[in-house]
Protein 1
Amino acid sequence: MENGMQLIISGILVGVSYAVLAAGLALIFGVMKIINFAHASFAVLAMYFPTFWFLQWWGIDPFISAGIALPLFFILGYLTQRLLIERVIGESESETSTLIMTMGFSLLIDNFILIGWSGAPRIINQPYTLETWRVGKVLVNHAQTYSLLISLVLIGGLFLFLNKTMIGKAIKAAADDPEGCAYMGINLRFVYGVAFALGIAITATGGCLMATYRPFNPFYGESIIVILFASVVLGGMTSIAGALIGGLIIGIIQQLSSLVVSISLQNVAVFMIFVLFLYLRPQGILGKRERLI
Amino acid sequence: MKRGTPQKRHTFWKDYSPILIACVVGGMISCIIAENRYLQRIILLVFLWAAATSSFNIISGYGGQVVFGYMMFVGCGAYTTVLLFKFAGITPWLGIFFGAAAAGIVAIFIGLPTLRLRSHYFAVATIAFPLILSPILDHLGLEEVTIPFKGYGFSSMQFTDIRVYVAIAIVLLAITLAIIRKIEKSRFGFELKAIKQNENAAEGMGVDVYRTKMFAFVLSAALGGIIGAVYAFSSLFVLTTHAVFGLFIIVRILSINIVGGLGTLWGPVIAASILVPLGEFLNAEFGARAPGVQDIVYGTALIVTIIFMPAGIWGRISEFLEHRHRKLGGSPKLSFAGSSDPGEKGNIEKKESPVVENTPAVGTEDGHDRPVLQVEGIAKSFGGVMALRDVSIEIPEGKVLGIIGPNGAGKTTLFNVINGYLKPDKGKVLFEGKDIAYLKPHDLCRLGIARTFQVAQIFNKMTVLENIMIGAFARHSSSLDAYAIARKTAEKMRMTSRLNDRAVGLSIWETKILELSRALATGPKVLLVDEPMAGLNPEENDKIGEILKAISETGITVIVIEHVVQSLVKIADLMVGLDEGRKVAEGSPEEVISDPHIIEAYLGAKWRKRYAQS
């Protein structure tokens, strides 16, 4: 029983970290209808730079780096959208070609990290990385708790931004009806750029937070991108709230699965659930079926 | 249309000899330049990657369904063959067929849920499967399987000379290419192309989209399984899950396919012979200092091609050839054995209506007013919106039925229910007395219900002739027959001058005629036409009307949705008025257009009163 409680708590902690990353993916998908396969690679890049290297070079705390990553990756995301993805979007079969292109891009990010900073697994060594609180019989890691709190602030900020600012509202409008937006004088390219940038910035910050308690390597993105995708599918593809719930569920399933199967098969359990969902409810938990014509 | 054997043999030679020649020449060049084992290995890899990419190309390039989890099949083939060899002593020559079967069966299970998804969901969904299987294999202690050495020799597929593997790989490649060439010329290939461009339209034209995709998927998978097995035996002593289930496999295959050109026969071969040696040489040169350099080559090539040359190398070459061909005034690109050149030139003659003189599709013996189609008590709602409520209509054979009603009245929904795109919540649709409400559009098309769409749904990248052929394939499985039907239909519809132009460049009028031609080529008994006059001028409206009337005179029942009431009235035998999902008027055109309900629905209550007073 204690074991189960412990697993649910750590499932929630892991799940929220997935939720943050998945929210960025869902935002990009919801607005631009593209699947960003390089999404997790951006998070991994943020784990190295600024998180790992700022700590190594100047002793900057990873939680401060997370704050630095937000604007840094916002700019990087904006440039990626305007310089690469914009060239493909809107053409015929652009859904597939953007997917393939971002896959190529993730390959580049991963391998440049490999060449630049070696393939050795890295770990952040800060006091809070290993320290824990004991609540009853449940152990709660410090770094994960701080990450959870910051993640909640981040998600709250994202919703505020989308609902309260002009540009946020423009993003939501563009997700609904891009053509209508264009007629209303909204610059779609700029809006798409900001949406993509926002998605990447959120994800990169989430990556920094994740790095405070998890070891990582250049190809870590490969192992989480499909988890993120599963979260988004569970949440019904286009909804950010859905992706958050999806991420949370995935985290809990992943942790609880160790009650049933070996720990090396954790992700297998996650993907099985994902496949099951595809069979039974492809529109996700919150999603609606689309009209055909 | 004659189908003489000599001509057939001639095209057979024309179709397949380039593959044979390319593979023989490729093999000979390889033997000459491959002086050491290192070069031989690289050549082996070129052929293997070319073959793997070509197999992938069937479902992903031709069918447009990009399988990100393709390594699943490579891995299944490799593992099945190696495990059978190791534990059961089954020779790999037999084992590869078990490997292919395993990959094919796995593909059916993967395809069942995922092939229903839209293309990019499908792409990412398939990637979950290798991620499920490979940790399970690791967990079972199979992450490294040593291929037992059973002495050099034919039966164990173990050779000292790498060139033997090269020969095997060349044969594999040649077989794969020959299969693709065969597909390109067949109904299956045309249908795949149609699905890639417009799934809805393909379904409506009698293509069983799901089954066609599934067949292509299983074929791609089985070939991938064979290649995986040969790859394992030729290049590995130790089979690891990473080597055959790794993400790098799909990345390279995608890269090679995109750079060469998706859905082209020669693209993968050309791109593999550039990218594979380049990657291997760079890896040998800089790999120690920069371990990811090979993947950077593939990634960069992928991105650069997508941005600057989306059709790929071969796509660009064939565009150039086509362009030059046209400049020289050559014959059309599509040529079939025994087909005559569509020589007659001349614009689509707008002044004259196309002559439609089909022999009646159905025997219209005696009961002229026998209903061919009956809609009984159909209801359909979307969420809280009732699009149709209890609509019943009887449609007599060989007549023109006009359906009018304001926007949102449920007209298109009614069409979608009749031809299977939507399932009704309640009610029946009887076609020749049989309930068809739960059949799919492609089944209905083959039964004899064809349609055109409100927003034209044509296969943009196919030629006009190919578009019409897709319709003709609904009843004819041979390409030659479909070609003949398509040409005949095009002649009747006066569409011959643009037969070999891509559909994307057509005018609105031509697009409408194309959609009608394509629907007629399916040999329908009932034709559903959704707003054929939208976007046309009054003169053209009347001409469309004449065409529809001519079609109905050949025995085909025509149901038209139209807002241009004055043109519709001229041709309709019967009319039905819909408003807010209800049938509000029915009868002769005169009756319906003077019906108070209809006047109110179109013009408001004020006009209804005025009309009543007058």
Protein 2
Amino acid sequence: MKINYALALVALALVGCGSGQKPESSPGVANNRPLPLVAFSQANSADPWRQVFDADTKTAAEKHADAMSYEMQAAEDDPNKQINVIETFMLKNPKVLLVSPATEAVQSATDKAFDKGIPVILLDREVQGDKWTAYIGGDNREIGRQAGQFIVEKLGGTGTVLMVQGISDIKPTIDRREGAMESFQNAPGIKVIFGDDCKYQRQAAQSYMESFLQSRKAFDAVYAHNDEMAIGALMAYQASANKPAKRPLFVGVDGCQQEVIQMIKDGLLDATFKYPGPGPKAIELAAEILKGKQPTEKRIILPTIKVTKDNADQYMIDNPNLAN
Amino acid sequence: MIVHVPILECASPMPLLSPSAMRAATRCRFGPYHPKTPLFSKSTCQLGNTQLQKNRATSKNMLPLLQRYQALAGLLILLVVAFIVTDRGSTPDAFFGSVFFSKGNLENVLNQLAVPGILALGATFVIISGGIDLSAGSALGLLNCITAMWFLRGAPTWATILYVLTIGTLIGATQGYIIGLTKLQPFIVTLAGMVSLRGIAYVYTDNANVSGLKGQLDFFRQTYLGIPTAGWLLIAITLVGAIILRKTVFGRRVYAIGGNALASLYAGVPVDRVRVGAFAFNGFCVGLAALLFTARTNNGQPSAGVGYELDAITAAVVGGTALIGGYGSALGTFVGALFIVSLNVLLILEGVNYYVGQGWKGVIILLAVYLQNIGRKTQ
């Protein structure tokens, strides 16, 4: 028993030591002077889009390794935990703070950082008030518009579109829906069926599509608010006995998974529209700020990229950090 | 430690014993942890206790002491590690020149500790009484929304605080009452509470975040003597909790019903009422935690506090509270929560990946419980 206990104590001590390891990144040092810290508080690192976002940001930071040290922490989409992270970061005197807010509730922490004179760059989501230096994000409405336009052109202006929807009451979904509707309303021959809220999940979209196909309603295109749901709908379509005579179009949004790009190459999906990750631009901006240049634009909106069979190979090369 | 000896001896002839012997039996259950508890001299317990002392004398190892203060030992190890690994010289107001031991970090840790620490104190009461509370996170979410909504509608700060604490206490008491009434397991009743309170939070806010508060609770974030108000509140309620558990009849009965509910009942302890009391205290803690949470986020969010009940239980367990009931202390839980929050802060300061940190935390929980068990099995 004594030995057991001693072993357990040793293990506990090891755990303590283990916590001191630095697998992520260690503060860089140049000419014996610590490099200025760029700290990134990520809302969560759970979904594929955020994983690519993290990887891209890290790659970009490594390119500036002689000018900055970079640290990242995720927070499970919990504003309280994200406030913990930001306030702990503040102890390390970061020179630039990047925050992708879990919700607008992290404002109390970003305000405090901004008041201490630290430039705050918001990524993808915003907080209220004006205590931030810059915002970088994508434009979901424009993505919706382009996706809608693509479908209208491919169908030659007439046909029925099934819209497989994401979480119905959040802003990205509303923008992706309304943007597409702008394009569809300009084409009088297009009819739209509003599908269920499939929560951006592959499984949910698959079971919805299975029930929809049972109804044997005709449709010519599927527009899903993200790629995962497009894949779910496609899988249900492939397994179904009630296929429409002509193969419908399948269009998704996000373009952050290798699987999706491969399916586009194989002709299973027709197109996806990249929801751009703001990480690399943010690092670029942080590097500028460290050189003493203040950003000229406060709101930076990143353009989308249409991915079809034509440019799928090039897209893979341009985006080496895509999720598996 | 030697707890199983007396209880086994007391347990078999139980229905034949007199009430006073019964009372003594239940006290024996947690006796070794509270040496000051008076023992009835003419009881079956005495045999167990003599044996206990003999064991204590013969076993020369430090096991009981270490086991009792395991959270403290863990915390000390953590502090030493923190001292070794953190950067030096970058912060002016730091002890030993380390960021981790800076004044700013003391404030930071206490600010982070307040919510999980108070939730864990409530959980400690419930767990000692032989129960468990899975609804704390959902209740925190609902009370967070209620606080925000009341402020948004212009209610005065004192009325909101009073209302939220009352509702919190009522939520706890109701669940405790339902357990007594239906004889269902606390796990089931609070699981139901967890599901439906979360649902109510979403219905109450109409699926939206409640924002636009004017910082009515900002005074919780002010510091006095280098410690934020939230930290002072945590210290105060922990001391109150410790006094209730150690010095009051109610507190002793919480241990008794957790140690052996049936024996307590025979000994004349109103088991159901004591349980309602323990759950009500827990509810009060959840209410207070919800107020501090709102002060921190300055909005109401129906999804707030998901998983916090497990964080609270973790802190209590690391602090030496046993899930079987009957053992534990308020101060132990405080140290357990402090250990976990300090570990979190250290992991962030050292730039350890969040998910790697979670992996280590699981290992630490396992170790903590393992240490308790080998301690109890030794005899």
